[in-house]
Every structure is written in structure tokens, then in C-alpha cells.
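Q: Give me the 3D complex with beta-D-glucopyranose.
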Amino acid sequence: MNAITRLAAVISLASLLPLHATAAGNGTVEVLHWWTSGGEAAAVQTLKAQVEKDGFTWKDNAVAGGGGAAAMTVLKSRAVAGNPPAAAQIKGPDIQEWGALGLLTELDEVSTANNWDTLLPAKVADIMKYDGHYVAVPVNIHRVNWLWINPQVFEKAGAKVPTTLDELFTAADQLKAAGFQPLAHGGQPWQDSTVFESLVLAMLGPKGYHAAFVDLDENTLTGEPMIKVFQTLQRLGGYMDPNRAGRDWNIAAAEVINGKAGMQIMGDWAKSEWTAAGKVAGKDYQCVAFPGTQGSFTYNIDSLAMFRLKDDNDIKAQNDLAKVALEPQFQTVFNQNKGSLPVRQDMDMSAFDACTQQSAKDFKVAEQGDGLQPSMAHNMASSLAVQGAIFDVVTNFLNDPKADPAKAVKQLNSAIKSAK
Ligand code: BGC
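A: Here is the predicted complex, encoded as C-alpha cells.
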């Protein structure tokens, strides 16, 4: 029995319990999410403000923990207890799994009235639908394969912005020699795998990346090129703080912002921290595609899946949240704060900074060929069970500087096989 079948069995019992408490007045929308860093909180505040402006009550259920693993644990226990929130941050293939449990509500009225099918790229719309009906609303498109750079630190170290992996190591050596932490990083499984997937993209290319994380192809997972990826990951680990265990991503971002470290390999939510610190893209900091991944774009789409509710007023509040999330005004302000691209395709990009404008251009280029790929580390490529198996192998490997890359690829393959 896999995790989701087990959950289904428990939920069928729990469905005998009341689904949602009745709210008085204009209706309440409870939103479970993991946007808790300074920049993320500023972004979520824009959504809350809009829902409140429309006369509804926002009940915030923020579960700290980057990448969302802790939030997903809370969500599962709420669902098992028969008391899910109105909306929860659920992404990628996981939306299908929740849909299959029969817990999500169909957003037919709001999606038809607001033309979601024409507003959204087809690829995005498909992810949001279960059985042909929208059950989730996307809020943005994050790009994962970024490198964030403090140019003042680079200048002091005499380093140049890297465009290849060789140049990345050269810059890292120069930063180290000048007394800086070359790579800011937090030792948490999702952060380790964020670095790992960008290396796979750089070294195997987008087709190899797809074969590894979407097709879970054994030859790709165990071949010589993947052994080289692990070797390179080990080498990169040597430029990270050995005391990084448990460090949150935004604390690592702050090390680059404050000039203690030179770079961070992280998705563009990292930009939300630079923005919150009042820093300007292209001037105070630089964003470049992770070296060797130019032309590719690993996407990570944040979306709010909507659970079935009983109270009519709460359903009105839930529909309002779904509608607001795709309105142009919200798409602009939210994504300016969040660091991501608007998910609507008809937006005026002149209101965005240089990094987001670059991201929009790169998305279009990547979309033309194989370059547009789902992020493994951010729940877009596989089930959470497979993702968890990859996380374990990668983190154990990175935590042991003497680990054997040839063994790691075998462990990766067998861990994935047993999670499938
Ligand atoms: C989410 C982002 C979030 C980041 C750090 C990612 O998985 O998609 O919205 O900012 O995790 O928590």
C-alpha cells in the first residue's frame, strides 16, 4: 500500500466527520501555506489584503519550513481528521493525488467566468485540473535554476560572474582565498536537492534531466554522467559552510545580502529576500542562470488547491480567493514581492525588475524546445514519495564528504524503485 492509498483509507473513515466548521458573517477562507520568510510574508500579505478588501475573513495557517515538507505533514493530518483548510499550497503531480482522494472542489464557475483557459499556458492549466476540472489556482511561476551573486563581494575577490561550471569553481576558489564563504547554503534536504537538480540540468542537459526525474530512467540514473554529477556535487559541498545543518534558505540568502558569502544556488524566491532588504536587481545583486543551464528553465508553480467546504459563506470566500489570485493587479504586486513570474500570459512586464524580465524571456526561449522542465526538488516532477527517496540519497551523500559517487547512483536508483 503506498502512502496515498493509506491516506485514502483513513480519510474514508474521517469523511463521516463534519468537513468544516460553520463560519458566521461573510465567510472565512483558511489558507495553509509555508510562506514565512520576510519576503514571502510580504507577498502573502498582498493576497490577504485583497480577500479582506472583498469583505471576507482570512485565516492564516502558515507552517514554517522552506520547500513545504512540514506544511504537507500538517495538511495530511488535517485531512485525516476531516478538517482540511479551504485552500492549501499543493503543487504539481500531488494535485492529482489529492484530487483522486475526492477532497478537492471543482472551480468550474470561477474558472469559466474568468477565462482561465485563455489566461493560462496550457501546460500550467493541465496541472491545475483534476479529471478535466480546475481544482487549484496557480499564483506564479518560479524558476529554480538561478545563481544569486553579491557583486561587491565578487569585486573584492577579483572574481568574475561564472557562466560555466569551471568558471563557478574558479570564482569559488577566489572567494575562498579572499576570506569569504563562497557558497551560502542551508543543510536541509530540499536545499541540497535544489543544488543537485541544477547540476543535473547543467551536466546532463534538459533531455537528460527529464529522463532522470520525470521518466526515472535507470540508465540515466546510474550512468557515468550521473556519477560525475555526484562527484561535482561533492566538490561543491567543499565550498559550503560545514556548519550548515538545518540553516533556513533565507538565512543563507542573508549571508550573501550582508556580504559574508559570495553566492547562493537557489530558486527566485531568494529574490524576495533581496527585495525585502531594499536591494535593487542588477545593481546591488545579480541573478544569472545556474552555470551551464542557460536556455533552460526549471519551473516551480505555486498553486492553491481548494478543498470541499459545506458552509455557503465560506464557499463564497474560497471562490473570491480563487478569482483574486489571477487578477492582474494581484499578479503584479504578489510576484514583485515573491520574486516569481506572473502566471498570466497577458501581463505588462515593465513593472518588474531586471531579473524577472530576464526570467520571462528565458521562459519563452525554453518553451520553444526541451528547455522547460519541472523542478524535482519543488514537487513538480514526480510523486512526493519518489522525491523523498531522492532527497534522502542526496542529503546523506552531501553530508559525508568521503561518500562514494559510484555507490550513490546505485542507491539513488534503488531508492527510487522502491518508492515508485
Ligand atoms: C515554494 C516557494 C517558496 C520556497 C521556499 C518552494 O517550494 O514553491 O513558494 O518560497 O519553497 O519556501
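A quick observation: The radius of gyration is 21 Å.
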